[in-house]
Automatic annotation (TrEMBL):
UniProt KW keywords: Signal
Pfam families: Beta_helix (PF13229)
Protein name per the record: Nitrous oxidase accessory protein NosD
InterPro entries xref list: Beta_helix (IPR039448), PbH1 (IPR006626), Pectin_lyas_fold (IPR012334), Pectin_lyase_fold/virulence (IPR011050)
Region Disordered, annotated ranges: 383-407
SMART domains reported for this sequence: PbH1 (SM00710)
Bias (Pro residues): 383-393
Bias (Low complexity): 394-407
Domain Right handed beta helix: 149-304
Leader peptide range in chain numbering: 1-19
Domain of life: Bacteria
């Protein structure tokens, strides 16, 4: 749907079919079609004005797409047939370095680093975030967080680091997406405070880690996701190698974390192999009403990160079954845990023994115990991980107007989210 005034439409008809032919400047939001008006997505991205829709027809596009114009929407007409392919040659598939950008309804695969990278830490090129082209410690003054983003109905497959990666970014959503074959994490959120980000209704499987967050704090919501069949299901970490230590204030509610000991996944995350949820050095996190089943090492583990202890985390109303250990407090003697509590969880095994389910916990030292280590299988190279099954597309993708990425994630009603069933998102 090309929304332009009659005069602009005459100009477009005059140059129909010519690559680079677009709407006259000032004509308002436009639809830039690939390959009908632009042979490559990158050409449309360079020509796009704020508010424009880049609409991509089915095809295999061997390029890195850099979205550097605010408020642009990049959308495929067919999620499974619009493929941005890195060919195991390019670092990134889609790089978002402008605020208010939406990436929707397409597949990004076979990049040596990231499928979709959203970051304020950018030089205008591929970005400077960890995992982009070099490791650079975040300087929040030099690189203020990117404001506003949406990643929706995206399939990220067989990427060498992260499938969908939001780093130094705030006020966004990662939703209804699918990630597999990531050599590090299927979905990653890093270095934001407050994040004001919702990660919801996604699937991550056959990754080293399904979902990972590092130094991601405040209004970070991980809701109704299926993180099953990875080497590790979910981790939330504090890490001195990155800025904004320690991690705090994440909300992890209503997720399914099951069977996270998948041998046909990339061979990383060996230390956590077989764990459903791991929190390392996290503070004031809420882990509630998740179903955590069949993880052979442990269901939920609270541990330390160097000298950063896990503090005041709440594990409430989770359903745990069939795990090696259901809940383990495994903080180190150097950074002992304090103020962490259990309440109303359904579980069978606790480490150390004798833990009571009460919030808040009585004052005083809280004992911990080491977690038994598993012998992880060798794993497979990320390009060799099985291709994902077809995923449901965005309704009305071809005719819907551009998507706003302002005011996200919007109201989040955590109290309305219950414990999911074992079939959460299984239809996908």
């Amino acid at each position: 749907m090309l929304r332009v005034p009659p005069l602009a439409l005459v100009v477009l008809l005059t140059c129909a079919g010519l690559a680079g032919c677009g709407v006259p400047e000032g004509a308002g939001p436009s639809t830039l079609r690939v390959p009908q008006n632009y042979a490559a997505i990158s050409g449309a991205a360079e020509a796009a004005e704020p508010g424009d829709l880049i609409l991509v027809s089915p095809g295999r596009y061997t390029e890195t797409v850099r979205l550097r114009t605010a408020g642009v929407t990049l959308r495929g007409t067919d999620r499974n047939a619009v493929v941005i392919d890195g060919e195991i040659r390019r670092a990134n598939g889609v790089v978002v370095s402008a605020p208010g950008v939406s990436v929707e309804n397409l597949t990004v695969q076979a990049n040596t680093l990231n499928g979709v990278l959203v970051t304020g830490m950018s030089d205008g090129g591929d970005g400077l975030a960890k995992g982009s082209n070099e490791y650079t410690r975040l300087d929040p003054e030099k690189f203020p967080p990117l404001q506003g983003f949406r990643v929706s109905y995206v399939t990220a497959a067989n990427n060498g680091l992260y499938g969908i990666y939001a780093f130094d970014a705030q006020h966004g959503v990662i939703e209804r997406s699918y990630a597999s074959g990531s050599a590090d994490s299927g979905i990653y959120v890093g270095q934001c405070r407050p994040c004001d980000i919702a990660v919801r209704d996604n699937i991550a499987e056959r990754n080293a880690v399904g979902y990972e967050a590092t130094n991601a704090s405040g209004d970070l919501y991980v809701l109704r996701n299926r993180f099953s069949g990875n080497r590790v299901g979910l981790t939330s970490n504090s890490d001195y190698q990155e800025a904004l230590v320690p991690q705090s204030g994440a909300t992890v509610v209503g997720n399914l974390l099951s069977g996270n000991a998948e041998p046909e996944s990339p061979a990383q995350a060996e230390g956590g192999f077989g764990i459903g949820i791991g929190i390392a050095g996290g503070t004031d996190d809420l882990v509630a009403r998740n179903r955590v089943e069949g993880n052979p090492a442990a269901g939920i583990v609270l541990g330390s990160a160097i000298d950063l202890p896990p503090l005041r985390n709440r594990l409430i109303g989770n359903v745990l079954a069939g795990n090696g250990i259901d809940v383990a407090f495994a903080a180190s003697a150097r950074a002992p845990r304090d103020g962490n509590c259990l309440q109303d969880n359904i579980l069978a095994t606790l480490v150390p023994n004798g833990l009571i389910q009460v919030c808040p916990v009585p004052a005083g030292a809280q004992p911990s115990a080491p977690l038994p280590r598993m012998n992880p299988p060798r794993g497979v190279p990320f390009p060799a991980v099985a291709a994902p099954p077809p995923q449901p597309g965005m309704p009305g993708a071809e005719h819907a107007p551009p998507s706003s990425a302002a005011g996200l994630p919007g109201p989040v009603d955590v109290a309305a989210i219950g414990v999911p069933g074992t079939n959460l998102l299984a239809v996908r």
